[in-house]
Design a protein that fits this description.
Blueprint: H1 3-14, H2 18-37, H3 42-51, H4 60-70, H5 76-80, H6 86-96, H7 102-109, H8 120-130, H9 142-151, H10 153-170, H11 177-188
The chain binds fe (ii) ion (2 copies).
One fe (ii) ion binds near residues 52, 53, 86 and 111.
Length: about 190
Amino acid sequence: MNDKLDLMIQERLSNLPTGLIKHIQTVETISVELATIHGLDIDKARLCAQAHDLFRSEKPTTLINMAQKLGIQINAVERELPILLHGPVAAVTLWKEGMKDPEIYQGIYYHSTACPGLMPVGKTVFLADKLDPRKIKRYPYLPSLLTLSKKSLDEGLMEFLTKQLAYHIEHDELVHPAFLAARNELLLNK
Ligand SMILES: [Fe+2]
Ligand SMILES: [Fe+2]
């Protein structure tokens, strides 16, 4: 990865709220741990984790405006829940700035919803993002998810998507189409 891009990411990171920086550092640590266990490219897992939430603190209206300017197609679920656009906005912004690695791009883009065909680095960052111990209240099954993710990224992913799908249904919440498609693909490939 080029130094200029790395510098731009570091500069953006330094301007984020403290809590978010801590979360990103935790995700980076867990991503590197999972990538090491599963024999993946550590540098890619690190960069993908560092960049995944660069736009997480933007307001919903800002995210909609940025997505439109970047030419990102906004679906009905994203229009209702613009926070889901912070991954796509980060991925497309970095791509335009010269970050041309498709696996990192995809991992950043789909870190909130997952997607069918998600590559290993994306799976690692997706899971690491949920495995931040600060999220234990939201995901009480986090310890078993960590064990499972160390054993198999697909098993970890399936476990998370299934538990969250049940949660979304129980709470009458919208489900992003990419989330359902990712889970369907895992079921079909079982
Ligand atoms: Fe995020
Ligand atoms: Fe995150």
